Amino acid sequence: MSFTENDIKQIKAKGLTLPQIESQIELFKTGIPFTNIAAAATIGDGILDLSERQKEEAISHFESNKKGLSLLKFVPASGAATRMFKFLFKFLKEYNPQKESLNAFINKNDSKDLAFFLVGLEKFPFYDQVLERLLEKGIDFKTLSTQDKAIHFIQIMLNENELNFGNSPKGLLPFHKYKNGYISTAFEEHLYEAALYASEDKKAELHFTISERYRDKFTEEFRRIEEYVEENTCVSFNISFSYQQESTDTIAVTPKDVPFRNDDDTLLFRPSGHGALLKNLNALDADVIFIKNIDNVVVKQYKEEVAKYKKVLAGILLKLQKESFECLRVLDKDNISDSEFETIETFLTNKMCIKISGEYKKYLNKYKIEYLKEKLNRPIRICGMVKNEGEPGGGPFWVRDMYGNLSLQIVESAQINLKNKNQKDILTNATHFNPVDLVCGVKNYKGEKFDLEDFVDHNAAFITAKTKLGKDLKALELPGLWNGSMAHWNTIFVEVPIITFNPVKTVNDLLKAPHQID
To answer: pTM score, two decimals?
Structure first.
């Protein structure tokens, strides 16, 4: 593969190297192997189902052991809200009131989303904001015909010279409206939530990964709400931001696996998905890190229930981390008894859900120590899992690697060979779904921070089909942050209730109960 001098300058300007680009192109050519799922993780086989007593014990353990620990909430928040309004953009583009009625358009396009949106109009948190903007333009919304109401309302929401919601960061959109008329954003709701479980000594630290072009908007929003939220929570907040680094972008190729070029003959690079945020996470230093997506929030009446399960997961983390560290200190000793080996082996199998190799029993003691240390001395993540209700996305599985070893992994459907009946059946019959509800320990038993780059499965990347300038291309996404990027972490799955999973993927999700005030 030959690159011009200008290509090499462009590659270096992004903080990339020629060998990295050549490696990426080779991945396109060879393809990425599918993940080999051996079985879905289920209750009793990879997923913990805790009794109420066990939940209370975990919460108590977290509350009594968090003093002196640094807690951090990490929130991926870089996406614009464009996809939330996809069906509304389609309506504005395609609907012609001169040629058909609104009902005819809805029926012709089977647009249940649009019908649901229009029925629920008054329940959206931005309803009054849109009506006020219409009044400023001399339009009395309530006197309009049904079809004119739809057109004018959606235009005010989405037009670039109006509210421009589609080009706004999702975290700063109006998400919830309270009885006193107060409107909150997802960004603000994360602060209230963090005060309940990610605070210590009346202080909470949150880190948001955002698009750099939105930094001023997020900073301005924090200034606007800071005093109000701190008064209501009696917690002060330290907010920090970072951006998806250009050096994590990947090259795009044509269907023939040669670099895709823009009209000006420059190489096309694309953001490489949320797996790129591993660099952002790796740069942070905290004892306990809570990870949750920007759009997964609830109104205040449900926050205590959500916080309860975050503390449950954190309590399990601290307990298992403590036991794991004790085992590692035993393994550092000069002489280890048979009973100590047995205790550590039992801990790995029964508590850490680690399958010990069949070859292990044949090892000499010094190799057993190496093996056990390698298995234990890793970052730990405790992952909440909800019952599968048909949502698209990843789930918890037992995965078999090329050496036959089994481990617990979060796997996306795109990583699975759906043409293989056995693999498709395992996916179809999976009982649980990944809501991105993680509590992570990223330090070792000596208090040193792990380099998270050491625990990535680079074969767990994605190749996707895209278009640019009307031409087909192939894009490469890095191993997902909670998929391949954490493949070699120690992983525990815990069942959590559906109330902990309330993402806003389309604007209509804001009409669901967890986003509405009774």
So the answer is: 0.94
